[in-house]
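so my prof wants the structure for this chain in the tokens format not the other one, which i didnt know existed until like an hour ago. anyway here's the sequence
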Amino acid sequence: MKREVVETLLHLARSAHPREMIALLRGHGHGGGEIVVEEVLLAPLAMAGEDFSEFPLDALPMDPSIIGTAHSHPVMDLEQSDGDLAESFGKISVVVAYPYRGLMDVAAYSPTGTRLHIMVL
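here's what i got, hopefully its the right format
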């Protein structure tokens, strides 16, 4: 993940608190199964509350560089819920948890819910 992506996600989560936020992630697959997240986009027609965030999938731009989503948890919980896993989209799902201090409050998951290692570029 590019450093700017991490900083943007933390900023969006802080700004939305105590509500959740949801965003789209733009990037590409890289050799060896690696994924590079290069940019954060605001999710179209997003709605959020204290325990949910969503956007209509039919509003998703036709952009193959969108590789996943990120959303925040306004509580100290980096784990994906069953709902998070069921609604994940793309190759990667990122969770940003309160108190949104830095990389220690960010987790990435595969579509099957396996936690991924994050390297900041």
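also thought this was worth mentioning. The mean pLDDT is 92.
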